[in-house]
Specification:
Layout: E1 2-7, E2 10-13, E3 18-26, E4 31-39, E5 46-52, E6 57-59, E7 67-71, E8 77-82, E9 91-99, E10 102-105, E11 109-114
Parallel strand pairs: 2-11
Antiparallel strand pairs: 1-3, 3-8, 4-5, 4-9, 5-6, 7-8, 9-10, 9-11
C-alpha cells in the first residue's frame, strides 16, 4: 500500500507563487502516475496536473503555462510549482498516487490566493 502526504500550501497574494510537495511512502515501486487535484468550496474535485513514471505530463487548461508538475530525484516525490496565482486557484489541493489500478490519496493542503 502507498501513503501520500502533501505540504507547501498557504496564503499568497494574487500574482504570487507557491510550490506544493507530495511524498509517497510504502510500496512506491508500484507507482506509475502521480496527480494533483483541487477542490474549491462548493465545487467538484478537478484534475490539475498529472505526471507518469516516464515523465509524461498533462495539465488542466485553466493552469497551463502557470503551473508545472515535476518529479524529484526520488521516484516517490512530486512537486507542483504554481506561478501567477489567481483568486480562483483557491482550493484544497490533493495529491494522488496510482498503484496499478488503485489511487492513494493524501489529506490535502489548503491554498488561498487573496486579491
Amino acid at each position: 500500500q502507498v501513503q501520500v502526504v502533501e505540504s507547501g500550501g498557504g496564503l499568497v497574494q494574487a500574482g504570487g507563487s507557491l510550490r506544493l510537495s507530495c511524498a509517497a511512502s510504502g510500496s512506491i515501486f508500484s507507482i506509475d502516475a502521480m496527480n494533483w487535484y483541487r477542490q474549491a468550496p462548493g465545487k467538484q474535485r478537478e484534475l490539475v496536473a498529472s505526471i507518469t513514471s516516464v515523465g509524461s505530463t498533462i495539465y488542466a487548461d485553466s493552469v497551463k503555462d502557470r503551473f508545472t508538475i515535476s518529479r524529484g530525484n526520488a521516484k516517490n516525490t512530486v512537486y507542483l510549482q504554481m506561478n501567477s496565482l489567481k483568486p480562483e486557484d483557491t482550493a484544497v489541493y490533493y495529491c494522488a498516487a496510482r498503484e496499478i489500478i488503485t489511487w492513494n490519496w493524501g489529506q490535502g493542503t489548503q491554498v488561498t490566493v487573496s486579491s
